[in-house]
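Key idea: predict the complex, not the pieces.
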Amino acid sequence: MKTTLAFLLLAAAVTAVHAQTGTPAPLAGPAAVTAASGRCGVCHPAERVQFEKSRHALESVRCISCHGGDDRSLEAGTAHGTGFRGRPARQDIPRLCATCHADETRMRPYNLPVDQYALYQTSGHGQRLARGDRQVAVCSDCHGAHEILASRDPASSVYQLNIPQTCGRCHGDRAVPGTRGHRDVLKQYRSSVHARALIEQGNLRAPTCVSCHGVHGANPPNIGDIDKVCGQCHTAERRYYTAGGHAVTRGGKRPECASCHEAHGVQAAQPERLASSCAGCHKGDTRRLDLGRRLWTDYRTAADEVDKAAAMVAKADAIPIQTEDYHARIEEARTYLREALPAAHSVQPEIVAGFTTRARAVGQEVQKELEGKLANLRQHRYVLIAFWFYVLLTLFVLKRFRDQAARNR
Amino acid sequence: MNGPGRQGPPARGSWVDWLEQRVNLSEIFSFITHFGLVYTPVDTQKPVREVLRDVAAEPVPRYAHGARALGLLAAILFGLQIMTGVLLAYYYRPTPEAAFESTRTIMRDLPGGWFIHQMHAWGSWLLVAVIVLRLLRLFWEGLYRAPREVLWWCAVAMTWVVIQSDFTGRLLTWDSHTYWSTVRGLEVMWAIPIVGPVLAFLLGGRTVNADVLIRFYVLHVMVLPAFYAAFLYLTFATLRRVGLSRTGPAHDERTIHYREHLYSMTMLTVGLFAILVTLATLLPLGFHGVADPYATPGGVRPPWYMLAPYFLLQQLPLPWLSGFVLLVAAVAVLLLPLWLRGDETRERRLRIRLAGIAVLVAWLVLGVLGALLERR
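Result:
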């Protein structure tokens, strides 16, 4: 009863103070609100600072959630007492994180997936860890330990822009002992059109390591799967590739996207490589080499016609004459050309020719029609000849009148 | 059916007599003497046919040929510019959004629109050339001395007005090249002491935007033509008062009838028109693309008459010096009659001509250097 009365008095006093000042109490920063580090930070200030910046510090995660012990005590014996785990062993980390992150009930409010642990166990990393390899990546290698941030936070090591660097810490550095996979992979990736789109143009939808290899279930794609991986984005190319003669596995080998385009150092489309790439596998096979050259010739001839037509349109614009229709048709021809490149993945000249022939035809039509219009304009000159005839006639007549006036003076 | 006052079968030309019985045609005709277009006072008591015969037989110097025709050409070209300009104004819209589009409509979609546009563009080019040559001719022959000071001042003022008309007209198409040409030209103008800041104030800043476009338009179609017309009137009126100049080595004293003079003028008009039509048809001036205030196309120069101060502006360590040179030049030509009187010796006149040639050559050399200048 006394306690209730005291509480009511206190509440009344607080309300009165607020009513007097009229302003709400200032909001404290996240760290002050949560104090999630408890008293651990007294002895571990560096870890406290890192942890209090993290996403976990905003939630009910505390130091003891991972490390065990008692965060209310300032005495080392008690604090590091009952249930204290200390620094978790590497092989234990995935399971430790999974205690929360595989728990659907806990993750539901954050709309986070709960399959990371299951995926991790299927990944190259997880399988090697299970076999006792302690050097492979565990959760904290990519996400950090105390300073874990949300993946959409630009400062996070797993933010889209930072992923190549994060994976590259092991897979791109010759100095890390026991590194697996391609050692120059980060350098190759940075030279690629994908990396330019991501880093230079800031296109967050450009692929990084995890777009092709998977995130928590990271693995190199299997033979026969590469077209599926690339085909996530390059749908048209995949459609033509699977319909064509290359999509066949023979003797455990298969010509796939990376056979011509490289795996990590993928460059922007270079149609001229149609003429040369075939020699990589079909050296000495004249028939197949000719096929590649023919694809390139068809494409180049059509592209030249379209370029010539576009130059004429630009010339007509400078006069200017009506060209809206021609602009649309040049765009149409360029669309055919753009479609011819994915179609080349079928390695069937008749399919490619379906597009290049149309592009060439449109280009030639535009040229022909514009030539007609420009020739019409040239007829102004003939009108000019007639005009000058009448001018000279007029001048002659005027001169006759003037001479007559001079004689009559 | 005969109207009142008509007796018998109508004789040839009798409609003039019919009209003359009702209105004083000679009085109406005499109106044009106010503009200095005829050389003699008109006797309004005489019938109009007789008046016209008298006027046609009026003796005038054998004049309208060679460099002396330049003033006449300037007047004819002005008339042509007014005619083509009015036609263009029917379709032109002076806003940055519509200027280029409407110009393209004129040049591309309207029947004969390209011709009117090219006539106007080449006409302005010729007009600037003619008016500058006329100024040089007046200087060469010393026609700034008393009693011709007013004519000289009119010539100088008309040169400024024509150059400004050309300059303001360039911007109106809102074409990428002319837009940037105007920006370069304005850089020269900003450098002129007093004039630059005042101009910047009147144009509402030093950025070429919608405000500048509409102000240039108003200047181009109203203010400057009005001033030009006023100076043209003043020139004709003064000319009839002080008489045509009788200069040249031979001091040709022979006279002809005004009728012959009129025929010569008509022939000049026809010839000029034919030349203009030929230029507009064979050498149409370029049309690039809509102006982008954030992208300068390569190789942009100010208009040709601004190349010399542009070179100075770009190359001299002191940017205001080029503006100062321009200001001094402008004031000097206006003040020429003040320190050159009519009584100087042959040697003095020769010295003045040589000084003029030196200034002209320097100006041309600087202009060529300005044209070759690659912008830093």
